[in-house]
Amino acid sequence: MLDLEPARIKLIMELRRQGVSNRAVLTAIERTPREIFMPEALRERSYENIALPIGRGQTISQPYIVGFMSQELKLNKRIVVLEIGTGSGYQAAVLAQLCRRVYTIERHRSLLQKAETCFEELGLHTISTRLGDGYKGWPEQAPFQRILVTAAASEPPPLLLEQLAVGGFMLIPVGPTWDTQNIVRITRSESGYDSQELLPVRFVPMVHGIAVDSPPAPQR
Description:
Layout: H1 5-17, H2 23-31, E1 52-55, E2 58-60, H3 63-72, E3 80-84, H4 90-96, E4 101-106, H5 109-122, E5 127-131, E6 144-149, H6 158-162, E7 164-174, E8 181-189, E9 192-201
Parallel strand pairs: 3-4, 3-6, 4-5, 6-7
Antiparallel strand pairs: 1-2, 7-8, 8-9
């Protein structure tokens, strides 16, 4: 059995040095076993501070990025979050410990099913999942106080902007898929939207539609 505890402790110390200072965020990351969200062949690398492949051309995000985005969402137990791009489920698992509820959408059925298994294993019952097109969001549950997009778009999707509550904001990587993007905070006001660039990043591209390997399935 792998002893990952020293690597976990080292990672938390590294995140602190990189500027992830919110105690609740650090605690959520420390309590979330990243290894269960990883392919078995890569589990010994679970606490390396890098993104790693999880199949279907997707990655599990770098822990620093998970920490940074979780911190920038400024969450509390009254806030509901929409996440676009469930992927491994790791980011949603961290968020679920920081907010009231997470609604998360994934276009790959195989990834979503594995993430759901991890949520069940961890007893995370405040996460609702959907197989679907992230560009369309989850209008039945809108408006959302926070929206987190974990894939890069050339511009913020209009339907997601519409699903933001007034006073709420979205974090989304914006920019060309072949180059560096920027995490942008887009805040909705009574009169429109205000944008602020936060951090240069490299994310997998946001793609329209449900993946061809993913026939429709009931939402959880």
